[in-house]
Amino acid sequence: MSGSVQLQREGAIAFVTISHSGRLNAMSRAMWLVLRSTFEALAQDEALRCVVVRGEGGAFCAGGDISEYPSFRFAEESLRAFHEDEVWAALQAMLECPVPLVAQIEGACMGAGIEIASCCDIRLAGASAKFGAPIARLGFPMAPREAALVRGAIGDTLARDMLLAASVHGAARLYDAGFLLQVLPDDTVADAALAHAARIAALAPAAARLNKATFLALNRAPVPVPPALPLAYRYADSAEHREGIAAFLAKRSPVF
Questions:
Q1: CB-based contacts of 144: which residues, under 8 Å, 6+ apart?
Q2: Helix (H, G, I), strand (E, B) or coil at 253
Protein backbone atom coordinates (compact mmCIF):
# COMPACT_ATOMS: atom_id res chain seq x y z
CA MET A 1 0.00 0.00 0.00
CA SER A 2 1.68 3.24 -1.18
CA GLY A 3 -0.77 5.65 0.43
CA SER A 4 -3.10 8.11 -1.25
CA VAL A 5 -4.02 11.77 -1.58
CA GLN A 6 -7.78 12.14 -1.41
CA LEU A 7 -9.92 15.01 -2.65
CA GLN A 8 -13.36 15.85 -1.29
CA ARG A 9 -15.55 18.84 -2.02
CA GLU A 10 -18.14 20.59 0.15
CA GLY A 11 -19.60 23.54 -1.71
CA ALA A 12 -16.86 26.08 -2.47
CA ILE A 13 -14.35 24.37 -0.14
CA ALA A 14 -12.12 21.45 -1.15
CA PHE A 15 -10.40 19.07 1.27
CA VAL A 16 -7.09 17.48 0.31
CA THR A 17 -6.30 14.63 2.70
CA ILE A 18 -2.89 12.95 2.94
CA SER A 19 -3.40 9.29 3.82
CA HIS A 20 -0.85 6.54 4.41
CA SER A 21 -2.06 4.12 7.05
CA GLY A 22 0.57 2.85 9.46
CA ARG A 23 3.18 5.38 8.31
CA LEU A 24 1.81 8.61 9.83
CA ASN A 25 0.88 9.71 6.30
CA ALA A 26 4.45 9.62 5.00
CA MET A 27 4.64 10.64 1.35
CA SER A 28 5.38 7.93 -1.20
CA ARG A 29 6.49 8.76 -4.73
CA ALA A 30 3.02 7.92 -6.02
CA MET A 31 1.49 10.31 -3.50
CA TRP A 32 3.70 13.20 -4.69
CA LEU A 33 2.45 12.64 -8.24
CA VAL A 34 -1.18 12.64 -7.12
CA LEU A 35 -0.63 15.73 -4.96
CA ARG A 36 0.63 17.56 -8.04
CA SER A 37 -2.24 16.47 -10.29
CA THR A 38 -4.77 17.27 -7.57
CA PHE A 39 -3.62 20.87 -7.22
CA GLU A 40 -3.25 21.31 -10.96
CA ALA A 41 -6.91 20.29 -11.27
CA LEU A 42 -7.99 22.55 -8.41
CA ALA A 43 -6.26 25.48 -10.10
CA GLN A 44 -8.72 25.13 -13.00
CA ASP A 45 -11.81 25.15 -10.76
CA GLU A 46 -13.38 28.60 -11.06
CA ALA A 47 -15.99 27.86 -8.38
CA LEU A 48 -13.40 26.95 -5.76
CA ARG A 49 -12.83 29.43 -2.92
CA CYS A 50 -10.63 27.67 -0.39
CA VAL A 51 -8.73 24.40 0.16
CA VAL A 52 -8.11 22.68 3.51
CA VAL A 53 -4.99 20.49 3.53
CA ARG A 54 -4.96 17.84 6.25
CA GLY A 55 -3.70 14.41 7.22
CA GLU A 56 -5.68 11.34 8.17
CA GLY A 57 -5.85 9.70 11.58
CA GLY A 58 -4.36 12.36 13.84
CA ALA A 59 -1.13 13.06 11.93
CA PHE A 60 -0.40 15.61 9.23
CA CYS A 61 2.59 14.03 7.46
CA ALA A 62 5.66 12.42 9.04
CA GLY A 63 7.95 12.96 6.03
CA GLY A 64 8.84 10.71 3.13
CA ASP A 65 8.26 6.98 2.85
CA ILE A 66 11.79 5.85 3.67
CA SER A 67 11.04 2.24 2.73
CA GLU A 68 11.17 3.36 -0.93
CA TYR A 69 14.47 5.22 -0.66
CA PRO A 70 16.95 2.42 -1.46
CA SER A 71 15.30 1.95 -4.85
CA PHE A 72 16.27 5.39 -6.19
CA ARG A 73 18.21 7.62 -3.79
CA PHE A 74 21.71 6.23 -4.40
CA ALA A 75 22.03 7.32 -8.05
CA GLU A 76 22.44 11.05 -8.74
CA GLU A 77 20.15 11.11 -11.78
CA SER A 78 17.20 9.37 -10.12
CA LEU A 79 17.68 11.35 -6.90
CA ARG A 80 17.60 14.62 -8.84
CA ALA A 81 14.51 13.50 -10.76
CA PHE A 82 12.72 12.65 -7.52
CA HIS A 83 13.32 16.03 -5.92
CA GLU A 84 12.99 18.24 -8.98
CA ASP A 85 10.37 16.45 -11.10
CA GLU A 86 8.23 14.87 -8.39
CA VAL A 87 8.56 16.67 -5.03
CA TRP A 88 9.21 20.21 -6.25
CA ALA A 89 6.64 19.91 -9.03
CA ALA A 90 3.97 19.01 -6.44
CA LEU A 91 5.00 21.78 -4.06
CA GLN A 92 5.01 24.29 -6.91
CA ALA A 93 1.48 23.23 -7.90
CA MET A 94 0.43 23.98 -4.33
CA LEU A 95 2.22 27.33 -4.29
CA GLU A 96 0.54 28.33 -7.54
CA CYS A 97 -2.96 27.36 -6.42
CA PRO A 98 -5.02 30.54 -7.02
CA VAL A 99 -7.20 30.22 -3.90
CA PRO A 100 -6.26 30.30 -0.20
CA LEU A 101 -4.92 27.09 1.38
CA VAL A 102 -5.55 26.35 5.05
CA ALA A 103 -3.34 23.73 6.74
CA GLN A 104 -5.00 21.63 9.45
CA ILE A 105 -1.94 20.32 11.31
CA GLU A 106 -2.23 17.54 13.84
CA GLY A 107 0.48 15.28 15.24
CA ALA A 108 3.63 14.79 13.19
CA CYS A 109 4.58 17.49 10.68
CA MET A 110 8.06 16.43 9.61
CA GLY A 111 10.19 16.77 6.51
CA ALA A 112 7.78 16.48 3.59
CA GLY A 113 5.02 17.51 5.99
CA ILE A 114 6.64 20.81 6.86
CA GLU A 115 7.30 21.42 3.16
CA ILE A 116 3.63 20.84 2.33
CA ALA A 117 2.52 23.02 5.25
CA SER A 118 4.92 25.76 4.08
CA CYS A 119 2.95 25.98 0.84
CA CYS A 120 -0.23 26.87 2.70
CA ASP A 121 -1.37 30.44 3.38
CA ILE A 122 -2.79 29.86 6.86
CA ARG A 123 -1.65 27.18 9.29
CA LEU A 124 -3.55 26.02 12.37
CA ALA A 125 -2.09 23.34 14.63
CA GLY A 126 -2.95 21.23 17.63
CA ALA A 127 -1.05 21.84 20.83
CA SER A 128 0.67 18.44 20.63
CA ALA A 129 1.83 18.83 17.00
CA LYS A 130 5.55 18.35 16.38
CA PHE A 131 7.62 20.00 13.65
CA GLY A 132 11.02 19.24 12.20
CA ALA A 133 13.08 17.84 9.36
CA PRO A 134 15.53 15.48 11.10
CA ILE A 135 16.96 14.10 7.87
CA ALA A 136 20.52 14.70 9.08
CA ARG A 137 19.94 11.46 11.01
CA LEU A 138 19.43 9.77 7.64
CA GLY A 139 22.64 11.12 6.17
CA PHE A 140 21.28 13.57 3.61
CA PRO A 141 20.39 17.27 3.25
CA MET A 142 17.13 18.92 2.23
CA ALA A 143 17.00 19.68 -1.50
CA PRO A 144 17.87 23.34 -2.24
CA ARG A 145 14.48 24.59 -3.41
CA GLU A 146 12.70 22.73 -0.63
CA ALA A 147 15.09 24.23 1.94
CA ALA A 148 14.49 27.72 0.54
CA LEU A 149 10.74 27.19 0.81
CA VAL A 150 10.89 26.01 4.42
CA ARG A 151 13.37 28.72 5.43
CA GLY A 152 11.06 31.36 3.98
CA ALA A 153 8.10 30.02 5.95
CA ILE A 154 9.63 29.23 9.36
CA GLY A 155 12.56 31.64 9.41
CA ASP A 156 16.32 31.26 9.15
CA THR A 157 17.06 30.32 12.77
CA LEU A 158 14.55 27.49 13.03
CA ALA A 159 15.40 26.19 9.56
CA ARG A 160 19.07 25.96 10.45
CA ASP A 161 18.32 24.25 13.77
CA MET A 162 15.97 21.71 12.16
CA LEU A 163 18.42 20.83 9.39
CA LEU A 164 21.78 21.16 11.13
CA ALA A 165 20.85 19.77 14.57
CA ALA A 166 17.89 17.58 13.53
CA SER A 167 15.86 19.40 16.19
CA VAL A 168 12.13 18.85 16.61
CA HIS A 169 10.01 21.70 17.96
CA GLY A 170 6.54 21.97 19.43
CA ALA A 171 3.64 24.01 18.14
CA ALA A 172 4.24 26.87 20.58
CA ARG A 173 7.74 27.43 19.15
CA LEU A 174 6.38 27.49 15.59
CA TYR A 175 3.67 29.93 16.67
CA ASP A 176 6.31 32.23 18.15
CA ALA A 177 8.21 32.06 14.86
CA GLY A 178 5.13 33.20 12.94
CA PHE A 179 4.64 29.91 11.11
CA LEU A 180 1.32 29.17 12.79
CA LEU A 181 -1.69 31.44 12.99
CA GLN A 182 -3.13 29.56 15.97
CA VAL A 183 -2.29 26.73 18.37
CA LEU A 184 -5.46 25.00 19.52
CA PRO A 185 -6.55 22.10 21.72
CA ASP A 186 -6.00 18.98 19.64
CA ASP A 187 -9.67 18.05 19.47
CA THR A 188 -10.67 21.45 18.06
CA VAL A 189 -8.23 21.79 15.15
CA ALA A 190 -10.49 20.26 12.50
CA ASP A 191 -13.44 22.45 13.44
CA ALA A 192 -11.24 25.55 13.57
CA ALA A 193 -9.75 24.83 10.14
CA LEU A 194 -13.20 24.35 8.65
CA ALA A 195 -14.47 27.55 10.28
CA HIS A 196 -11.50 29.51 8.93
CA ALA A 197 -12.02 28.08 5.45
CA ALA A 198 -15.73 28.94 5.61
CA ARG A 199 -14.85 32.49 6.64
CA ILE A 200 -12.56 32.82 3.62
CA ALA A 201 -15.13 31.24 1.29
CA ALA A 202 -17.76 33.80 2.36
CA LEU A 203 -15.59 36.73 1.26
CA ALA A 204 -15.08 38.15 -2.22
CA PRO A 205 -13.54 35.34 -4.29
CA ALA A 206 -11.99 37.58 -6.94
CA ALA A 207 -10.22 39.60 -4.25
CA ALA A 208 -8.84 36.42 -2.70
CA ARG A 209 -7.48 35.27 -6.06
CA LEU A 210 -5.89 38.65 -6.70
CA ASN A 211 -4.28 38.59 -3.25
CA LYS A 212 -2.94 35.10 -3.94
CA ALA A 213 -1.50 36.30 -7.26
CA THR A 214 0.22 39.17 -5.44
CA PHE A 215 1.67 36.89 -2.79
CA LEU A 216 2.88 34.47 -5.44
CA ALA A 217 4.65 37.26 -7.32
CA LEU A 218 6.28 38.53 -4.12
CA ASN A 219 7.36 35.04 -3.06
CA ARG A 220 8.96 34.02 -6.32
CA ALA A 221 12.16 35.88 -5.43
CA PRO A 222 13.03 33.87 -2.25
CA VAL A 223 12.68 30.52 -4.04
CA PRO A 224 14.84 30.80 -7.19
CA VAL A 225 16.91 28.04 -8.72
CA PRO A 226 19.82 28.07 -6.24
CA PRO A 227 23.31 28.42 -7.76
CA ALA A 228 24.29 25.22 -5.94
CA LEU A 229 21.64 23.15 -7.70
CA PRO A 230 23.95 21.55 -10.30
CA LEU A 231 25.97 20.00 -7.45
CA ALA A 232 23.10 19.41 -5.06
CA TYR A 233 22.68 15.68 -5.66
CA ARG A 234 26.32 14.59 -5.89
CA TYR A 235 25.94 12.96 -2.46
CA ALA A 236 23.63 10.26 -3.86
CA ASP A 237 26.13 7.39 -3.66
CA SER A 238 27.94 8.63 -0.55
CA ALA A 239 28.68 6.31 2.34
CA GLU A 240 26.83 8.43 4.90
CA HIS A 241 23.72 8.62 2.70
CA ARG A 242 23.64 4.84 2.39
CA GLU A 243 24.41 4.36 6.09
CA GLY A 244 21.70 6.75 7.30
CA ILE A 245 18.94 5.09 5.31
CA ALA A 246 20.18 1.56 6.03
CA ALA A 247 20.29 2.30 9.76
CA PHE A 248 16.76 3.69 9.78
CA LEU A 249 15.37 0.70 7.94
CA ALA A 250 17.28 -1.67 10.26
CA LYS A 251 16.02 0.25 13.31
CA ARG A 252 19.52 0.96 14.60
CA SER A 253 21.56 4.08 15.25
CA PRO A 254 23.62 5.26 12.25
CA VAL A 255 27.40 5.40 12.46
CA PHE A 256 28.68 8.42 10.58
A1: 226, 228, 229, 232
A2: coil
Strand order in 122-126's β-sheet?
A: 4-10, 13-19, 50-55, 101-105, 122-126, 182-184
Instruction: Report yes or no on 57 lying in a domain.
Output: yes
Dihedral angle of Cα 72, 241, 86, 109, to the nearest 10 degrees: 130
Spatial CA neighbour of 232 closest among 115, 140, 137: 140
As a whole number of angstroms, the distance between CA 256 and CA 253 comes to 10
Q: What range does the domain containing 125 cover?
A: 4-187
Question: Which pLDDT tens digit goes with each residue over 151-195?
Answer: 999 999 999 999 999 999 999 999 999 999 999 999 999 999 999
Q: Is residue 207 part of a domain?
A: no
Spatial contact of 42 and 98, defined as CB atoms under 8 Å apart: no
Element (H, E) at 217: helix 205-219
For the chain, the domain total comes to: 1
Q: CATH no. for residue 21?
A: 3.90.226.10
Q: Which amino acid does the sequence have at 54?
A: R
**Could you read off the pLDDT of 232-250 as tens digits, one per residue?**
888 999 999 999 999 999 9
pTM: 0.93
Residue 65 lies in a domain: yes
Q: Are 133 and 117 in contact (CB under 8 A)?
A: no
